[in-house]
Write a structure and sequence with these properties.
Layout: H1 9-31, H2 37-66, H3 71-224
Pfam families: Sec20 (PF03908)
InterPro entries: Sec20 (IPR005606), Sec20_C (IPR056173)
Membrane topology: Single-pass type IV membrane protein
């Protein structure tokens, strides 16, 4: 504040008012500071610098008051200096309260974040347990599906085996049918042959009977009608 010592009285008043208002605004910024502590430290450093300037201006005003020739003006300036000192002390008290409130708020915020972190860890743990349980359930479901598919495959194999046996039975029956068909055809041929032979035998018997009757008639004719 070397420059402040050389300024006129009016300028000194203006500087004191300016720094007072800036300190009040900075104290409000500290009170509203959400953190972290590094931000609060920066604000406090700025406030300290403003208090240093304000103190210098008050000291300069006090020095000017002491140099006044008129006692009345001197006393008036000294009362003004005293008022500025009281205002500065009030600002310092407000500054300390704002720091205390800000630190409490930051501590509470950090505690909340810590609790949220614990809740997050607990939630992640619960989520992991849920995922593990879900994975176990999925594994059991897959094992159940695998067992079901194995049973289905076994049933399919049994069905295929049954179809194969049925196919074999059908083929055997077809072979037997073919054999029976050959036997039936052979029997039909034999029956036809026997029918033909029976017809021939009947014809021969008829011819033999006719021949016999003709012979008998001839003999009777010779015996009974020799003159014929």
């Amino acid at each position: 504040m070397a420059a402040v010592a050389a300024v006129p009285l009016r300028v000194c008043h203006q500087e004191i008012v300016k720094f007072d208002l800036e300190i009040k605004a900075a104290v409000q910024d500290i009170r509203d500071c959400p953190g972290p502590l590094s931000a609060l430290t920066e604000l406090n450093a700025a406030v300290k610098e403003k208090f240093r300037h304000l103190r210098g201006c008050i000291q300069e005003l006090e020095q000017m008051a002491k140099e006044q020739d008129k006692e009345s003006e001197k006393q008036a300036l000294l009362r003004e200096v005293e008022n500025h000192k009281k205002q500065m002390l009030s600002n310092q008290a407000a500054w300390r309260k704002a720091n205390l409130a800000c630190k409490i708020a930051i501590d509470n915020s950090e505690k909340d974040q810590l609790l949220q972190g614990r809740d997050s860890v607990r939630q992640r743990k619960t989520t992991k347990e849920s995922l593990a349980e879900s994975a176990s359930n999925i594994t059991e479901s897959l094992m159940g599906i695998s067992r079901m598919m194995s049973q289905q495959v076994q049933q399919s194999e049994e069905t295929v085996q049954t179809l194969a046996n049925s196919s074999r039975t059908i083929l055997e029956a077809n072979e037997e049918f073919k054999s029976m068909s050959g036997t039936i055809q052979l029997g039909r041929k034999l029956i036809t042959k026997y029918n033909r032979r029976e017809l021939t035998d009947k014809l021969l018997i008829f011819l033999a009977l006719a021949l016999f009757l003709a012979t008998v008639l001839y003999i009777l004719k010779k015996r009974l009608f020799p003159f014929l």
